[in-house]
Predict the structure.
Amino acid sequence: MMILLSSILFQNPGFFQQLGDRINEGGPLAMSLILISFFIIIFLVVRAAINVTAAGHKFRKNISLINQLALIALVIGLFTQFIGLIQIFDAFESLDNVNPAMFAAGLKVSLLAPLFGGFTFLFGRISSFILNWIRKSDLDANTTNTY
């Protein structure tokens, strides 16, 4: 039983190994930029959560930066996909007989950056929505208590 379990664990790469493989497969430059955007968005979300009761301009600045970085990550992903599709079509244009499996593999690679950029965009936008919602309810609670 233990041998079976250890063989299964060593055969399947871990989450971070698979993530690293996908980042490498999707284009290291674009995927690294999207990953850096994702980490900065996480930092800004934490900072905005800490400043949820602070002055309005600090909170709004954090939310604005989150939204802008999320959009940049999405645009980087889509731009990378367009470049990848152009490269795929150029490569297949030079071939006489195109293998469908090779074409599918090229399309899969071209979809990795927009998928990761879209995930980063959704994470940033949902986070800013939740933070605005928390702030709004917090401000509403404070204004009703002052009367």
About this structure: The mean pLDDT is 82. The chain has one domain: 28-142.
